[in-house]
Amino acid sequence: MNHRRHRIATIPGDGIGHEVIEAGQEVLEAAARKFGFSLNWTEFDWSCDRFQNTGQMMPEDGIDLVREYDAIYLGAVGWPTVPDHVSLWGLLIPLRRELDLYANVRPVKLFEGVKCPLADRKPEDIDFVVVRENVEGEYSKIGGRLYEGTPQEAANQVAMFTRHGTDRIMEVAFDLAKRRRKHVTSATKSNGIVHTMPFWDERFKAATARHAGVETAAYHIDILAAHFVLHPDWFDVVVASNLFGDILSDLGPAVAGSIGIAPSANLNPARKTPSMFEPVHGSAPDIAGKGIANPAAAIWAGAMMLEHLGETQAAEAVINAMATTLAQNETRTADLGGTEDTRQSVAAVLAAL
Amino acid sequence: MNHRRHRIATIPGDGIGHEVIEAGQEVLEAAARKFGFSLNWTEFDWSCDRFQNTGQMMPEDGIDLVREYDAIYLGAVGWPTVPDHVSLWGLLIPLRRELDLYANVRPVKLFEGVKCPLADRKPEDIDFVVVRENVEGEYSKIGGRLYEGTPQEAANQVAMFTRHGTDRIMEVAFDLAKRRRKHVTSATKSNGIVHTMPFWDERFKAATARHAGVETAAYHIDILAAHFVLHPDWFDVVVASNLFGDILSDLGPAVAGSIGIAPSANLNPARKTPSMFEPVHGSAPDIAGKGIANPAAAIWAGAMMLEHLGETQAAEAVINAMATTLAQNETRTADLGGTEDTRQSVAAVLAAL
Ligand SMILES: CC(C)[C@H](C(=O)O)[C@@H](O)C(=O)O
Ligand SMILES: CC(C)[C@H](C(=O)O)[C@@H](O)C(=O)O
């Protein structure tokens, strides 16, 4: 068997993005050595820093530069001195769109040793995945303003859903459910949102018909958010539009006590482009550069990257090492109530690995 | 002083709407007797039943019929045999829009005796109000489909925000905050939604400048939903667009264990039209007609109606009676873990009153 080699583009981005990507690389390198493959890293300095120096978050041909890699490992994008919609629509969102990373997969899991904000919930109660449509829907630059700066001012924004985009995200959700507990929940709002959400419901029904053996449920987003708190044990795979998935994939980790450690996989399931893996957390300007950021989200995102690259055993080993360290009360960063810094936390994961 | 008389239009609607409105009327009548005013009730049969008999949820001139009342007391709208977007856009939403009930005020409160799904939270930790824009924003019939029924099918939906609509909901939120703990939180998504939400942020800033002495915060809706679970004690008044307010005003009550008892006031703050008061819960087809529905949401909504009608003392007395019964472990309906039916629950509130 040939030695397996994976070429990874890293984009540390802003703030603690640097610290956690470095930490993640260290863990992934150790896994690579252990499981006999190698990772070649190429770093790109795309960030708010770069924007302030050059006026661009990434170069004109940025997307083409990363297209040839096997995967992208992203830290965090955003800094207080650059408006969010500038930095995100200048880097994160074009990466998702132009590489057609249409499936955003975000696991929600209560780990042993992590404090859950809900009363009486155990690890077996919270273990689901939010599958978020990642390139169309409510996120769009379509729209604008009229009568700007006057009392008559009005702004509009168009949400666009295509059958192409909706059907393929349903496929991802149902396929994933088949490898899990065979249940898919759809997040809808067809009672209040008249055009796009009834359409979403139809495509969910069509997908249900294509996938015998998978049980389904559908809830309006308002009550679904409530159920995340009241009945997190009801969920296996939750499929949602771009905006609803965004909300649910922060709410889910909050409920599981893992808002600081949640990972996000931006996938092109057909593997025509490199998929991108990132922590859900942001650049955390308040603690950036202090060396105290929790690297767990980046490590978990790294494990998802290994899994996507076909390194299933290594991926499992990394997740298990992370779970072991989380379960040990002594090895925790400040955000989880511990006293460790990033380096100590990485050392603990490496030891467990 | 003249005898005060308030004319109320009741719309029980569907399912348990009938049971809870009747229960609420009984409690409000008792309060009226005690505090020396009278309530004149006129009932309208607008509902899914009516739709199935006549093809219309309400008559053509429905809105004009209720315009002359002092307030509207609504049960629940929706039934499985009628598509939600038909029943709701045929009754609930036109009432909100055509009467210009632009402020949807939804209190979130953890009552003594109510089981909170969060660990270690006490009544003083959860006491805030969601102020939701109720007539514009993401809820619209603007949009449609192209290539219907083909692989190229696409649907779109336009969210519309006006300065008029945004500024006036901000006013309601800041005014309310001044009568409470002087803090307003804005729900935004200006990093992902490019046109309407940056506009929302600007209007929030403008409102902040007009209201010295009120502290403010703003969060993107994804992390805000997470904070509802992790830090419900951060909030006093939360101002949100139509869709975000819809989500937050189900999530809030879920967090406070009060999803079945949450009320909703649809206000025209200028009092040019009758404001409308309703429970947040739906028509509950599974328990409709059994006489076991929890009347607390309708009673709480009734108290908000009394408050709006200027019967402040009576409103307080009703809320207190409700709080007392909730605190008594014996007097609870099944949804709160008790064994009482609607009648027993009403009797307990009447006794406390
Ligand atoms: C029934 C539905 C249209 C309605 C809404 O979304 O406004 C409900 O959820 C509410 O919050 O009153
Ligand atoms: C930063 C923001 C644009 C982004 C999103 O809304 O997609 C983030 O919240 C996420 O979930 O990855």
From TrEMBL, chains A, B:
Q: Which SMART domains does this one have?
A: Iso_dh (SM01329)
**Molecular functions (GO terms):** D-malate dehydrogenase (decarboxylating) (NAD+) activity; magnesium ion binding; NAD binding; tartrate decarboxylase activity; tartrate dehydrogenase activity
**By its UniProt entry, which SUPFAM superfamilies does this protein fall under?**
Isocitrate/Isopropylmalate dehydrogenase-like
Query: Catalytic activity, per the record?
Result: (2R,3R)-tartrate + NAD(+) = 2-hydroxy-3-oxosuccinate + NADH + H(+); (R)-malate + NAD(+) = pyruvate + CO2 + NADH; (2R,3S)-tartrate + NAD(+) = 2-hydroxy-3-oxosuccinate + NADH + H(+); tartrate + NAD(+) = 2-hydroxy-3-oxosuccinate + NADH + H(+)
Task: List, for all copies, the residue spans of the domain called Isopropylmalate dehydrogenase-like.
Answer: 7-349
Q: In which pathway does it act?
A: Carbohydrate acid metabolism; tartrate degradation; 2-hydroxy-3-oxosuccinate from L-tartrate: step 1/1; Carbohydrate acid metabolism; tartrate degradation; 2-hydroxy-3-oxosuccinate from meso-tartrate: step 1/1; Carbohydrate acid metabolism; tartrate degradation; D-glycerate from L-tartrate: step 1/1
Which keywords, in A-to-Z order, does the entry hold?
Manganese, Metal-binding, NAD, Oxidoreductase
Q: NAD: present as a keyword of the record?
A: yes
Query: What is the required cofactor set for this protein?
Result: Mn(2+); Mg(2+); K(+)
Q: What is its EC number?
A: 1.1.1.83, 1.1.1.93, 4.1.1.73
Tell me the function of this protein. Answer: Has multiple catalytic activities. Apart from catalyzing the oxidation of (+)-tartrate to oxaloglycolate, also converts meso-tartrate to D-glycerate and catalyzes the oxidative decarboxylation of D-malate to pyruvate.
As for family, the record states: Belongs to the isocitrate and isopropylmalate dehydrogenases family.
Tell me the protein's name: D-malate dehydrogenase [decarboxylating]
From which organism does this entry originate? Answer: Marivita hallyeonensis
Q: Taxonomy-wise, where does this protein's organism fall, top ranks first? A: Bacteria, Pseudomonadati, Pseudomonadota, Alphaproteobacteria, Rhodobacterales
